[in-house]
Amino acid sequence: MIDLHCHILPGLDDGSPDLATSVEMARVALDDGIETIVATPHCFVDAGPTPAEICTATQQLQAALADGDLPLTVLPGAEVRAHPQLPEMVSRGEVMTIADGGDYLLIEPPFIGIPNYLEQLCFELQVASITPILAHPERAELMQRQPELCERLVERGCLIQVNAPSLHREYGRTIARIAADLIRSELVHIVASDAHNATYHPPVLSKVRRAVVQAAGEDAFHRMTQLVPARLIRNAEETAR
Ligand SMILES: [Fe+2]
After folding, report:
1. 172-181: pLDDT as tens digits
2. Ligand 1 ion: residues within 5 Å (CB)
3. How much is the pTM?
4. What is the whole-number distance in angstroms between the Cα of residue 63 and the centre of ligand 1?
5. 60-75, pLDDT tens digit by residue?
6. How far apart are CA 204 and CA 145, in angstroms?
């Protein structure tokens, strides 16, 4: 499996605090059957971390994993807080995209409040040939109040990522229901862990296999944790060549 949203890089955000925790997270992920993680630290337009910092941290973690004989691939990425300036910044190379490919951007909508610029932001990114991936909309007030917004964005070609912990009720019943409804409505492309540590918020995906299959059919889990993420990463590798 591929985990496309994971705060595994040490010391960059509220995820892993140190290298030892990151290595432990890698162990947990491997035990769960995850062989690739896109490291997605929180990023803010005015506070970073920068793409260069993310690349360096990714290389350091990858080296530590190799030293420990842990066969996990870690790719650079970011979970970027929604902001009207993003299209400009991405075009200047100031924001890290998924696997540093320049074509998919994981965007975190605010949990509280409804930013009226979100649709325009997604549109402007698409005009610049960047596909927005909306991170865990099931956790955002915006989507809870306006579920049709996800539908509109997906119709226009945006992708949606739901958190595995949302499905096993880590954030309560309402969010679990919204997440399952989104999956049932075929609006979800990716399920990822959004892990922040190795213990109470670990990089584990297999736990929600049943919930995803129940909501969207036999192939859905494999599609959302392997086929679609693999396609996004492959695109990045082809762009880099
Ligand atoms: Fe996250």
Report:
1. 899 999 999 9
2. 79, 194
3. 0.95
4. 23
5. 999 999 999 999 999 9
6. 29
Lowest-confidence segment of 29-38, 54-63, 210-219 by average pLDDT: 210-219
> 42: CA distance to ligand 1 center in Å?
6
Residue 241's pLDDT is what? 58
With tokens 């998919």, the residue in question is: 104
- How far away, in angstroms, is 139 Cα from ligand 1 center? 11
In words, the CATH class of domain 2-236 is: alpha beta
Give me ligand 1 centre to Cα 162, in Å. Answer: 11
Give the model confidence (pLDDT) of 1-46 as tens digits: 999 999 999 999 999 999 999 999 999 999 999 999 999 999 998 8
Q: Which regions of the chain does DSSP assign to beta strands (E)?
A: 2-6, 36-39, 42-43, 73-76, 79-81, 104-108, 131-135, 159-163, 190-192
Going from the Cα of 70 to the center of ligand 1, the distance in angstroms, rounded, reads 23
DSSP, residue by residue, 53-104:
HHHHHHHHHHHHHHHTT---EEEE--EEEP-TTHHHHHHTT-S--GGG-SSE
| pLDDT for the residue numbered 239 | 62
Residues 6 or more apart from 214 whose CB is under 8 A from it? none
First to last CA, the chain: 24
Q: How far is the CA of 221 from the centre of ligand 1 (A)?
A: 20
Give the Å distance between the CA of 43 and the centre of ligand 1: 10
Whole-number Å distance, alpha carbon 13 to ligand 1 midpoint, is 10
